[in-house]
Amino acid sequence: MNFDKNFIFGVATSSYQIEGAFDVDGRTPSIWDTFSKEEGKVFNMDNGDVACDHYHRYKEDIQLIKELGVDSYRLSIAWPRIFPAQGVYNPKGMEFYKNVLTELKQKGIKTAVTLYHWDLPQWIQDMGGWEVRECANLFLEYAERCFKELDHLTDMWITHNEPWCASILSNALGEHAPGKKDISAALKTAHHLLLSHGMAVRAYHNLRFNKPIGITLNLVPAYAKSKSFSDLLAASNADGFSNRWFLDPIFKGSYPFDIANLYAARSANFDFIKDGDFQIIGEKCDFLGVNYYNRSLVEFDSMAFAFNTNSYSSYNKTEMGWDVSPEEFIDLIKMLREKYTDLPIYITENGSAWIDVVEDGHVHDKERADYLVNHLEAVSKMNDIGLNVAGYFCWSLLDNFEWAYGYSKRFGIVYVDFETQERIKKDSYYKYAEIIKERNS
């Protein structure tokens, strides 16, 4: 593997997944607090009330980051800590992030701060949430406050994490909070998320701040099961559904018409798009964040939402049932370079879930370590052919609350015993530390 001295190695987490302290220091509920308490929404009725108790253990966790040797730590801010009610700013909530970022700075660790990793305040959802255009203005108020309070402690800003999950998965497929199954709600949500992204980037630049700012998209390269017309159509639809619906407005100033037609046939209309919206959404960023976990292999299915369904694949699978597919990772970044952008790309998440067993105080997670190595080798190859990947953030530092899967799926390179809150470095942690050390030697 070949990484130059400017390449950023990182590790990532998000607020609701690790912080706990759900009602501490003025925090009010998010949509995930509400959703996880509803019967049948989250595995085992798990929730983030305690999670990894990072709110009280952040110094211990930052020490783990320091010992790992990464250049940067990606974290997110819990909006309900900052604005627990409409128009009510909570300095105590902001103080927590100031303390965390100060501790990281003192340890020589750079930071990438995500403003929205899905924990929308419940009070905003009660007003209509992201379906309502006003939510974008509320996000702007929140973002500007974070910029003014934290920019001097931060090295990089990310407006949104995975808007596909926060819109389609959450409002059309109903698998994440708020759990709706309404394509119109999902499309309005996606649009207002993207609009608020552009508004925040524009505001950041107008405030004369100068750290890099961008957005993170989860992208899934889709491949047809066969060369039949139907399966090729399925792959195109899968690409539009997961990728182009978000890439096109950011980089090409429109939604893709083929997928818009498909949604229109599902009774969606597009009157929520106003004149000038695409200019705001396309506000120039400094980088694109990409979360990559797996490719998808699809076949045509006339009954499916976007006329495609996952097909059988012989690839090795993670505990999530996802294909281990590092070669397709390279295909994805090539496609972004050919069709969309020459901005620096950061891999803001990449990782894998496996069944972990503690043996004599150790976790020998060979499969996760292999996954990490294979995907870092892919990133090294990308840069060898000039694709300009500026950094890589491993998901995740800690085993944590894995959304609808509760605590049943472990992505961490550090094992967490959720009964005792003990942290155990896994073999993958040591492997990642070794790779970073090799670059630095």
**Shape type:** globular
Largest sheet: 8 strands, parallel, barrel
Oligomer: single chain
N/C terminus separation: 13 Å
Lateral arrangement of strands in the main beta sheet: 1-2-3-4-5-7-10-13
Order of secondary-structure elements: EHHHEHHEHHEHHEEHHHEEEHEEEHEEEH
Total helices: the number is 15
Record keyword descriptors for this entry:
three-stranded mixed beta sheet, 15 helices, single chain, alpha/beta, 441 residues, eight-stranded parallel β-barrel, globular, 15% strand
Structure description:
It is globular and about 55 Å long. 42% of the residues lie in helices and 15% in strands. The two termini are 13 Å apart. The chain has an eight-stranded parallel barrel, surrounded by five helices. A three-stranded mixed beta sheet has the order 6-8-9, covered by helices on one side. It has 441 residues and is α/β, with parallel strands linked by helices.
Q: How are the SSEs ordered, and which strands pair?
A:
Blueprint: E1 8-12, H1 15-18, H2 31-36, H3 54-68, E2 72-76, H4 79-82, H5 91-106, E3 110-116, H6 122-125, H7 134-150, E4 156-161, H8 163-171, H9 183-206, E5 213-218, E6 222-224, H10 229-252, H11 257-265, H12 277-281, E7 287-291, E8 296-300, E9 308-310, H13 326-339, E10 345-350, E11 358-359, E12 362-363, H14 366-384, E13 389-395, E14 414-416, E15 423-425, H15 427-440
Parallel strand pairs: 1-2, 1-13, 2-3, 3-4, 4-5, 5-7, 6-8, 7-10, 10-13
Antiparallel strand pairs: 8-9, 11-12, 14-15
Provide a quick synopsis of the model.
This protein has 441 residues and is of the alpha/beta class. The protein is 42% helix and 15% strand. The longest helix has 24 residues, at 183-206.
